[in-house]
Structure formats: structure tokens, C-alpha cells
Write a structure and sequence with these properties.
heterodimer, A: globular, B: alpha/beta, Alpha-Beta Plaits, 2 domains, two-stranded antiparallel ribbon
Amino acid sequence: MKIAFTTASSTLNGELDPKFGRAPGFLIYDTDQQNTQYLNNNLNSDSAQGAGIQAAQDVIAAGVQYLVTGSCGPKATQVLKSAGVKIFNSDSVTLNECLELLNSGKLTEA
Amino acid sequence: MKLAIASGKGGTGKTTVSVALALSAESAVTYLDCDVEEPNGKLFLQPEVESSQNVSVSVPVVNRNRCTGCGDCADICQFNAIVTQGEYAMVFPELCHSCGGCVYVCPERAITEEMHPIGSLNRGQAGNVRYIEGLLNVGVSMATPVIDAVKDHASEGVTIIDSPPGTSCSMVSTVRDADFVLLVTEPTPFGLHDLKIAVKTLEELKRPFAVIINRFEETDNCVDRFCADEGIAVLLRIPDNRKVAEAYSRGESLLSALPELKDEFSQLLSAIQLALESGESA
């Protein structure tokens, strides 16, 4: 399965960005393939409105099942949930920490 | 003649001046209240309300039975108001600008339009003054369609347009086709700061304009100095007088506190009309 983290980093050593819609991008970790892929979110972070909605569409199109972020706005949440994406909020600093907390069931689903 | 009254900073006296101008006009005049988030001209003009109608905008409706989730609608939408979530398209009506693009491009003809009311247009008469206000519904953030509906009622004669404060979308759409704009300001640092932004905005929009200083006290003030430096005409200076605030608090116009201003306002209107007719700046 695929887990997306909001971040500016292209590795799991990087830091979690607290935003979703205007995050710099998403690091998508494929647990089956054990690899990562970075999805840039620049276009959306510059948009006048609906950044979260569009980012949600992009994350869904990338085949993500779990999203880990600081927080996600109501419209983006609506889009993500309608596609069955599970959203987890975290204030941890590094993506590795978030992954550990997620795997040990310590992150609450939004 | 469409005369818009704008400002930069809010609370400088746009409605005060708009109402005074309307009451000073020598013939029938139309008053358009385009401050649709909180139209307050009626508090002073007290028109007899004659009619009220809804202002609505068209937003898309997706027929999920026909939608294949192809995303063509999302691709064309400049406002992120419609997106695909994999299987079907979802609409966020509050973001929609009613361009109709999604309806047009849908290959399955799965999108139709429905009307959503966003505000109302209220009309009435107060003596010589034909009063039209737009009122945005609570919770709606898109003011421009209501403003446009109000502006459709501009008359052939003198139309006074009370504009929203500031210099964003609402103000721009109110003043963009005015024949002349009066910028009402106060002689304070905040007043001057925001006046400068309003001046830049009007220069971009290529609107002829002049300044009115409200709550004027000292001849040597920052706004007069700025206008002198920039060659901007100051057409009126309304004195800072407690009687004005007292009248305002009773819902009475500026003219009831300072009746001597009535002649100045009607001369101001004539001067602007003359200047526009002869093609010169005021």
C-alpha cells in the first residue's frame, strides 16, 4: 500500500510539513515495493483557492491509501474520505518517526 | 454619470458622502449601494422598499450515473470547484465562478446546472432618490455577482455608487466602469497608507478620480501633502465636528449636522459633470 507524507523532502529522513493543501509536496512510500516517490505540489500551493481540493485529487490519483500530515482542511478531507483515503494527523518532526508511530498504531485517524 | 465613492481604509465616510451627495442633487438621482456585505445607505435615506428579488448563480450538478471520473471537468476548472476523486466528480459550489466550462467539456454530458441564491436585490424610493441595494447572504464569500446585479440598475442621469471599502475584488468590480471616482479618506497615517493603494488601483483601472478629506482639522496634514505632491485634486474637506458623529448616531445625514455643505456637494456634482462632458479632469 501507499502512504503519503506532506513534506519538502525526497527521503524519509526529512521533516513533516504541517500543511496539506499548500504543502511543498508529498513523499509517497510504497510499503510493498519498499521505495519512495516524490510528488511536487507547487502548482497547488500557488493557487488562489481550492488548493486542498486539488491536492487531494492528485494524492488520490497517485494511488495513496494513507495520508500523514499536520492537518488537513475540511474540503480536502471531504474529497480524500470520499475516495477512502485514511488521514492521520501528526506533529512529529521526521517522517521516520511518523512512520513508526503509524505502524505501532499510535497515530489517530482524523 | 456614474459616480463611485470609494476609499482605501474603511470607515472614512464613503456612505456619509454618498448619502450627502444623493440628498444634494438637484434632480432625480439613483443610489446604488454596492457594499453588499453590509449595505447601510438605507439607514440614512430610509427608502420605502418596493421590491426584493433573489440574485442567484449557476453551479454544476454531476449525474453520477453518467460520470466516468475522466477528470476533463477538473482539468478545465480554474477555480478547483470541481474535482474527480477517482470514480466520480465532486462539486464545491462555493468556489464556482459559473463559467460553464465543465458543462461544456464533459464527454458524457453528465453535468447540468442549477441556480444557487447568493443574495438579494432590494429596491425602493426615498423622495428624489431611487435606492437600490445588494445584500449578500450570510456565509457567501463571492460578492461580485450581487454587485453586478446592482450596477445593472444605473440610470441615465446621476447615479451615486457607494462602494465597499478596500481595494480587492468587490471594490474593483464596483468602480471599474464608473465615469468618475471620489476617494474619501481621513488625514491619518492609516488613511494615507490605504489611500495610496486605492490611488494605484484607480490608476490601473484608468478611472478619473479626486479626493475628499473627511474629519479635516489642520491645513498641514499628510493627505493634503501627498495629494499636492502627486497632483491629485482635493475637492472637498469636511471638518471634524462632533455634531456630525451625533447626527450619524441618530441615523441622520451629514447635511442635518452641517447644512451649509449642501451647496458644496451640489456644486461638486455639477463640477464633475461639467468636467466629464468637456473631457477635462476635475
